[in-house]
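[job 4417] fold queue: 2 targets
>>> target A
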Amino acid sequence: MPPPPVGPEGPGQVPYGYPHAGYAGGAPVGWGGVPPLPSNGMGVASLVLGIIAAAAFCLWPVAIVLGVLAVIFGAIGRGKANRGEATNGGQALAGVICGAVGSALALTFGVIVLVT
């Protein structure tokens, strides 16, 4: 059965149970609603920079900078994970480790290149 036609004065009274302006997304206004998404960007950036630093240690000046950035971003990402703002604390820790290893390899390679 089709709904009744709409008159010139508008649709009339809103039927019971129909979502209206007092509700947003199915929850009454003022209630919690949807929780915010985790902020995982620092952990991801740390891991990516750490992997690049470890893989490209032959480009030692670049790898040292990338490794240091990976350690910094990883520390920030671990802090966010500890506060509950992010969900990838392990990924941030892996970025710190890869960044430290990449920086150490690049530093060692740079010393060898400069000494010989």
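>>> target B
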Amino acid sequence: MAGEPQSDCLFCKIVAGEVPATIVRETATTVAFRDINPQAPSHVLVIPRLHYPDAASLAAGAPEVAADVLREAGEVAAQEKTDGHGYRIVLNTGAGAGQTVFHAHAHVLGGRGLNWPPG
């Protein structure tokens, strides 16, 4: 069920403290941690504590939490000192877009030039 922890979800296990992660920020509704396969000098994932499979379902089911994820992405960028140089927030939705963990999450990337278009 949407919003409920899923026993087979890696990110739900990180939220529960069952799987270790390098956590950089936590709020009542979000957890931010370093990506284990960074694509930039600063690469942090911001996830909702609630389980939604992707950004679209999070926005539809818990729009206030979706807003919290975006707000925290900005806080992460400031903490990482990438906000003054520019950073990117990426929300992949679906396997065809590169989503590999089906728990909504935002990638916050910075610390190098980020060309456009991506990919």
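[job 4417] complete. Note on B: The helical segments are 10-15, 55-61, 63-79.
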